Amino acid sequence: MKYFFLSESWTTGRIWEFGGLWNELAWNRPAYVERQPLYIRENGDNLWLYKAEEAILMIEVKPRAIADPTIGQVVLKRLLSAEQVVERLCQEEIFHPPAHHSDSTDPEASEPPSADSLNQEPWATKQLAPQNQLARLVHQLTPFLRSGRFRPKATVR
Q1: What is the 8-class DSSP label of residue 80?
Q2: What is the dihedral of CA 79, 81, 87, 93, to 10 degrees?
């Protein structure tokens, strides 16, 4: 899988794979690009984590509302690996909206879970949806990853 962060005010457009633009007829399905239930805040903007399938090379992103006509579209050419996402999440405060706010369009409606609320229900005693499991796992791993004991593999650029 590949990953990228995208502002709430932007949306995805065309998608490219090795042979050119994604062809739903050739693949017999649309490209897999899904917004994850985690975001970080940068300069007051919520940047949501997106997951994309490995076959995708580039993704066009564009503003939802054409408020600034100087930026019409951008093409993301360097999607992130899972290791790069973990490194970035370790440097930022991670937000995971509660389940009842998942469809909310209010960016201030989502607050990070408190440590007390996570400790009230132990990880192994409650069956969670996969997206909640990912968020809880990232939250639990963050102190370890920030402690300096985690050494990511060197990446070749």
Answers
A1: B
A2: 60
Segment holding 3, helix H or strand E: strand 2-7
Three-class HEC string of 105-129? CCHHHCCCCCHHHHHHCCHHHCCCC
Whole-prediction pTM: 0.61
**Phi and psi for 89 in degrees, rounded to 5?**
-65, -30
Q: What would the pLDDT profile of 138-148 be if each residue is shown by its tens digit? A: 766 666 566 66
- pLDDT single digits (tens) 63-102: 887 665 666 678 888 899 988 998 888 888 888 776 544 4
- The set of residues, in sequence order, having a beta carbon less than 8 Å from that of 130 and lying 6+ positions away, is none
How far apart (Å, rounded) are the C-alpha atoms in residues 34 and 100?
19
Interatomic CA distance for residues 53 and 12, integer angstroms: 14
Per-residue tokens: 48? 């949501």
Q: Tokens 């490995």 identify what position?
A: 54
**What count of residues does the chain have?**
157
User: Pick from 91, 30, 87, 37: which is nearest to 59 by CA?
Assistant: 30
